[in-house]
Amino acid sequence: MSAGALIEEWRAYLANNRRRSPHTVRAYASAAERLVAAAGLADWAAVARTEAQHLRSHLAARRAEGLGNASAARELSALKAFIAFARQQSGDPDPAPPRLRGPRIKKGLPRPVTPDEAINLADGVDSLAADDWIGARDRAVLLLMYGSGLRIAEALSLTGRDAVLGDVLQVTGKGGKQRVVPILPVTRAAVADYVRLCAWPISANAPLFRGAKGGPLSPGMVQKAMAQARRALGLPDTATPHALRHSFATHLLSAGADLRSLQELLGHASLGSTQIYTRVDAASLLENYRKAHPRG
After folding, report:
1. How many domains does the chain have?
2. Which of 85, 104, 216, 266 is most buried, by the most CB atoms less than 10 A from its CB?
3. Among candidate residues 44, 71, 89, the one where a domain is terminated
4. Is 19 among the residues known to form the active site?
């Protein structure tokens, strides 16, 4: 078996058996490809013999290339999964991956934008766009992220079947997990405006949001439009499309939403991923206290 065949089989397993997202499949396949190339591995038995010290050396080389802590931790996770799969494929009675602890990662606080800033950004991408339909498109995407907590990939995965929105929308998130999110009237109206103005026909099986030449809209184009609006409004570099999803979560928590409900709305696999927003809200409360208290 060739190294390329190993990677293709691994990619197919992730996509078809584990139903991982395309982004995860690409990242895990790339990590495996680097290990296979560096160690000269050509079959599943060879991959299965990879031990903790081999992984440690490989990751040390990657760190020397400038890989940060968070990226190194993700790569280690991908390689452990790859080796566990190899051990299954080779009939190893102990398919567990090598025991190796990843680098400690300090979790930073998400930096949400205020409700006014979120609306101003959505209006800004609209007013700064070269064409009316492109401005309406970008505004609709940003409002889906802010108003419904969608990831940018989830918003761009919508098809023509979603063109007429109701009060709720079913979306497919990471790992193929489905959830139902609320749709605000302003978001529903924004999507309807885009559909009315779109320069390309909206068909049921095609992407709802289209690029200037009619193909699927890329995340990079949304990020570029928001960066332009962010500069025009004098907002910091942290005001990214993903910050709108953070804002959705933080504002709901401030309004009294419980963590379990927030977990469902965000599509987090574990409550731990959602709990970071309690730190965001606490930080906001402390900042307001310091500004308001006479001894602050």
Report:
1. 2
2. 85
3. 89
4. no
| Catalytic, out of 58, 245, 289, 295 | 245
Are 77 and 126 found together in one domain? no
| Residue 285 reports pLDDT greater than 60 | no
Based on the residue annotation, tell me whether 174 is a catalytic residue of this protein: yes
Determine if residue 234 is left, alpha or beta; phi over 0 gives left, psi from -120 to 50 gives alpha, anything else beta. Answer: left
Of the residues 151, 210, 246, 251, only one is catalytic, namely 151
pLDDT at 95 over 50: yes
Could you tell me the CATH number of the domain that includes residue 283? 1.10.443.10
Active site residue 104: no
Is the full-model pTM beyond 0.90? no
277 is a catalytic site residue: yes
Instruction: Pick the catalytic residue from 49, 63, 174, 179.
Output: 174
Q: Is residue 94 part of a domain?
A: no
What CATH number has the domain bearing residue 21? 1.10.150
Active site residue 151: yes
80 is catalytic: no
Mean pLDDT for the chain overall:
79
Split at pLDDT 50, 70, 90, the class of 296 is very low
